[in-house]
Design a protein that fits this description.
By secondary structure, this protein is of the alpha/beta class. It has helices spanning 65-82, 87-116, 120-140, 179-190, 204-217, 231-240, 253-263, 288-300, 317-333, 352-368, 404-407, 423-431, 446-455, 492-497, and strands at 30-32, 35-37, 44-49, 52-61, 147-150, 156-164, 167-171, 194-198, 224-226, 244-250, 269-273, 279-282, 312-316, 372-375, 379-380, 390-391, 394-397, 414-420, 435-436, 438-442, 460-463, 479-480, 498-506. The chain has a seven-stranded mixed beta sheet with strand order 14-17-18-13-12-20-21, with helices on both faces. The structure holds 2-aminohexanedioic acid.
């Protein structure tokens, strides 16, 4: 996903007018060792509504390395007990957590829309994703399977078991403010690890809500800790702390590279979920209405601020014109506004820096790339829009796959449509980016669908559905510069949050040397 934003302490509205309602804004706390505490700095940053920056949601601790050190120490101490709690018991707490999230779903969704902007339906989906991962992972508490396997020697037993890793740092983005933290948190604690969470400065409230729910569910003190603040003041000390054994990060490829470098000297485990430049291929035999529906949802859902967003649509020349006409018509008609209004179809952009970055790409599309701007392309500033961060749904057509707008992740409501002549060409275009998260094909031809499934080098692939909408019991992640070989969610997340231990039990009563004493066994009569 796109760059981390310097989103701290906005004191002006989008319009430049002085902020209001500051006095009434609630002050939130860090959560360390089971206690809600202020930062040692005594300072706070603001959390404002991106649809209306006059709306100040709250003040969150501007923490520093000392807060991080306290949280890590708490997690380190709690780890010694938590790792010994039987996994099915840890899972019981998680089932309770799921129930709490269900009860609070509507409140959490509304608060999420207020702090992040995505429309209510999507915020409900975000909380639902947290609920899903909660129940799915809790079920693993009674599995957490290892293996038993025959030994090569007689009277010897062999098996492998999972061990927790230790203290985990969980550094999460603003676009899925509860789902992504939950994807990481649930398997981490189910496996017996303890965690320190550092949410994005744009969306600390949703992680606060999640952590509060953990407390209510009975997660013991120190197992889950929360420290809010910037990447440099909290993220860096966290990922370089010697007692942190694993860093789980979702964010931009640029920051991900820094996380990877920070983890390397002490060989911390690190999993990185980063950018995407996902493609929908529309073949000449596709159900076009369905393809247009998918491209609208995949391209403009969450205002395009998903690492899975369908930012490129590669369309067969035979249906190109027809698809484009329908697609542009639908994009132009999308109702943009405050996500709290149920009629809104596309919400705001997260913050000013991101608006500027998206507008910059639109300029490149228009001038440098010389792609055909079919609709959108502007910031919305009239009326109530002036108080938020809104950009029109934007479509570029007749794009060449090498254009900047077809190569770089824009992380906004900007979709490039690219013509193609064949399935082979579409696949080649689809794969020819530095990312490899998600891809999709619309076709009625099963052979084409299977060929694309085999050939697309992405971690996620869809047939007759857009590139967004991953479910929590399947592995999530991507190839190339999208990730570093790990997968989140699904049972695959257990690989991340555990270390394997191979165990051998020799009950022969004598020394048996592997690889050496097996020779005499080969004398078995044939
Ligand atoms: C992301 O964009 O960072 O598959 C995560 C999806 C969602 C998750 C997206 N379930 O679009």
């Amino acid at each position: 996903m796109a760059k981390a934003k310097p989103a701290i302490a906005r004191t002006k509205t989008a319009k430049g007018a002085p902020a209001i309602r500051t006095a009434a804004a609630p002050r939130f706390s860090n959560y360390i060792n089971g206690e809600w505490v202020p930062s040692v700095t005594g300072e706070y940053f603001e959390n404002r509504n991106p649809a209306d920056t006059r709306d100040l949601i709250g003040l969150f601790p501007k923490s520093n390395a000392e807060d991080v050190a306290r949280a890590v120490a708490a997690a380190r101490e709690a780890y010694e007990k938590w790792r010994l709690v039987p996994a099915p018991k840890r899972a019981e707490i998680m089932f309770r957590l799921g129930e709490i999230l269900i009860r609070r779903k509507e409140t959490f969704a509304r608060e999420m829309t207020r702090e992040m902007g995505k429309i209510l339906k999507e915020s409900r989906g975000d909380v639902q994703e947290a609920i899903d991962i909660c129940y799915f992972t809790a079920g693993e508490g009674r599995r957490l399977y290892g293996q038993t396997t025959p030994s090569e020697l007689p009277n010897k037993f062999a098996m492998s078991v999972r061990m927790p890793v230790g203290v985990c740092a969980i550094i999460t983005p603003w676009n899925f403010p509860m789902a992504i933290p939950a994807w990481k948190l649930m398997p981490a604690i189910l496996c017996g690890n303890t965690v320190v969470m550092k949410p994005a400065t744009d969306t600390p409230l949703s992680v606060y809500n999640l952590v509060k729910a953990c407390e209510e569910a009975g997660v013991p003190p120190g197992v889950v800790n929360l420290v809010t603040g910037s990447g440099s003041s909290v993220g860096t000390p966290l990922m370089t702390h010697p007692d942190v054994r694993l860093v789980s990060f979702t964010g931009s490829t640029e920051v991900g590279r820094k996380v990877s470098e920070a983890c390397a000297p002490s060989f911390k485990k690190c999993n990185l979920e980063m950018g995407g430049k996902n493609v929908i291929i529309v073949m000449d035999d596709a159900n076009l209405d369905l393809a247009v529906d998918g491209a609208i949802w995949g391209g403009f859902g969450t205002s395009g601020q998903r690492c899975t967003a369908s930012s490129r649509i590669v369309v067969h020349k035979k249906v190109y014109k027809k698809f484009l006409t329908q697609f542009v018509e639908r994009a132009r008609a999308l109702r943009v506004g405050n996500g709290l209004d149920e009629r809104t179809e596309m919400g705001p952009i997260i913050n000013e820096a991101q608006v500027q970055s998206i507008l910059h790409y639109i300029e490149i599309g228009k001038n440098q790339d010389r792609a055909k701007l079919m609709c959108g392309g502007n910031r919305l500033t009239h009326g109530e829009y002036a108080y938020g961060y809104f950009i029109e749904p934007t479509v570029f057509a007749d794009c060449h796959p090498d254009m900047v707008i077809c190569q770089e992740e824009i992380f906004g409501p900007v979709v490039s449509v690219i013509p193609c002549n064949s399935l082979e060409e579409a696949i080649q275009i689809g794969n020819n980016v530095r990312y490899g998260l998600s891809s999709a094909i619309y076709t009625q031809d099963i052979n084409k669908a299977f060929i694309a499934m085999r050939e697309m080098y992405t971690g996620i692939f869809y047939v007759n559905a857009p590139t967004i909408g991953a479910e929590t019991h399947l592995p999530f992640g991507g190839t190339k510069e999208t990730g570093n070989g790990h997968r989140e969610a699904g049972v695959q997340a257990l690989e991340l949050f555990t270390e394997w231990k191979a165990v051998y039990i020799d009950y022969s009563g004598r020394l048996q040397r592997a690889q050496i004493d097996t020779a005499e066994l080969s004398a078995i009569p044939s």
